[in-house]
Specification:
- The chain is α/β, with parallel strands linked by helices and about 400 residues long.
- About 45% of the residues lie in helices and about 15% in strands.
- The chain folds into 2 domains: about 130 residues, Aspartate Aminotransferase, domain 1, CATH 3.90.1150; about 250 residues, Type I PLP-dependent aspartate aminotransferase-like (Major domain) (Aspartate Aminotransferase, domain 2, 3-Layer(aba) Sandwich).
- The strands form 3 sheets. Strands 2-8-7-6-5-3-4 form a 7-stranded mixed β-sheet, with helices on both faces. A 4-stranded antiparallel β-sheet has the order 9-10-13-12. A two-stranded parallel ribbon has the order 1-11.
- α3 packs across α11, α6 packs across α10 and α12 runs parallel beside α14.
Length: about 400
């Protein structure tokens, strides 16, 4: 007999992917410029010029046998050394190369990390709204995902609800800031309080509760006054799962890393668990070409000013039309309150105006929809009349 759970996962796409495929089919029917697809978080800004230039230089100057060969299982040492040094300089940490494990993006980072720390029956807490695949990753590692609602309207962390959800079975908490789908950045005040809460309950239950930061959007913050706290500076038992997919517009290349805080109590065992989980899952030796690329462009980002312009244009228009919107500080998503209780019905009505948006139900937050504004500014301009008509249909 096959593994029925995995067969089911393979047969049923996520609703985001289903809507994305619907959009492609619809564009083929009526024309690409007539469909306004805000479904998926695929960067619309090209990778920086340095990326292509550096790849060309690497291909021209590196020994091809070494370049296309294996690295160490956890990644090339020189790459990990450069990145750990950069993290230390930027955030004041004391990591070394053997605190990092190179991965195929943040999904692999999270999957490896959860498999490294979870035993069957362990619980992982995250805050709703949250990236839907957290549930898939957690359950595959033998754990159970517990979603804790954030504060209504602001989507800041709700500590009363968090404390009522922490149990002796809690093994980890996942945070995602800037958040997908809300775009909210958790403040330093919230991270301090979160750290204090986890320390308190770790001591109460006599079990370490790990704090995992899922950070593909760290660099996508639009206002200088907004800071994304680095969790290793606040909580010792912390792990950062990082990806260059969004900051460098490289989602198809799948390159990132796991950083394990060297200040945690049982660092050597946790890092060994990461290496062991990577081995068991077959996530060893991330693509060497892109490891060498990151070694040279680790401090470069795409032109995120375009996303800020998109945010401002869309936010101003939607609020003018009467929609209630959580203004995002980062990432490239906007969370909009549905004019009717059933957000899925609202999304279906939006299709009548060729607007493709995703119901918040899949993110653990009913009554809202996610709009991915990582699209061309021209598409947003073309879509505004459709959004206005959609709003008027509820007047």
């Amino acid at each position: 007999m096959l593994n029925e759970k995995n067969v089911c996962l393979g047969k049923v796409r996520s609703s985001i992917r289903e809507l994305f495929e619907y959009g492609k089919a619809r564009k083929a029917e009526i024309g690409e410029d007539k469909v306004f697809d805000f479904s998926i978080g695929n960067p619309s800004v090209p990778a920086p010029r340095e990326v292509n230039d550096t790849i060309a230089e690497i291909l021209k100057t590196y020994d091809p046998v070494q370049l296309h060969g294996y690295t160490s299982a956890q990644g090339d040492y020189s790459v990990r050394k450069v990145l750990s040094d950069y993290i230390n300089t930027r955030f004041g940490t004391t990591l070394n190369a053997d605190c990092l494990y190179m991965t195929c993006g943040a999904a692999a980072s999270l999957t490896i990390t959860l498999n490294a720390i979870l035993n069957n029956g362990d619980e992982v807490i995250t805050f709703a709204p949250y990236f839907p695949e957290y549930k898939v990753f957690t359950e595959h590692a033998g754990g159970k995902l517990i979603a804790v609602d954030c504060e209504e309207d602001t989507f800041r962390l709700d500590f009363c609800k968090l404390e009522s959800s922490l149990t002796a079975h809690t093994k980890a908490v996942i945070i995602n800031s800037p958040n997908n789908p809300s775009g909210v950045v958790y403040s330093e005040e919230d991270i301090l309080k979160l750290s204090e809460t986890l320390e308190k309950y770790s001591a109460k239950y006599g079990n370490t509760i790990y704090l995992i930061a899922d950070e593909p959007y760290r660099e996508l913050v639009f206002d200088k006054s907004v800071k994304v706290p680095y969790i290793m500076n606040y909580y010792s038992d912390s792990i950062v799962c990082y990806s260059y997919s969004k900051s460098l517009s490289l989602p198809g290349e799948r390159i990132g890393y796991i950083a394990v805080n060297d200040k945690m109590q049982n660092f050597s065992d946790v890092y060994a668990g990461v290496c062991g989980a990577g081995r068991a899952l077959g996530f060893v030796c991330a693509p060497n070409l892109f490891q060498q690329l990151i070694k040279k462009v680790y401090n470069v980002t795409s032109d995120i000013s375009i996303y800020k312009k998109n945010r401002d244009k869309l936010y101003n228009a939607l609020t003018e039309y009467g929609f209630k919107v959580v203004k995002p500080d980062g990432a490239f998503y906007m969370f909009v309150k549905s004019p009717e209780q059933d957000a899925k019905a609202f999304c279906e009505r939006a299709k009548n105006y060729e607007l493709l948006i995703v119901a918040g139900d899949d993110f653990g937050c009913k009554g809202y929809v996610r709009i991915s504004y990582c699209v061309s500014p021209e598409m947003i301009e073309r879509a505004l009349p459709a959004f206005k008509k959609l709003a008027e249909s509820y007047a």
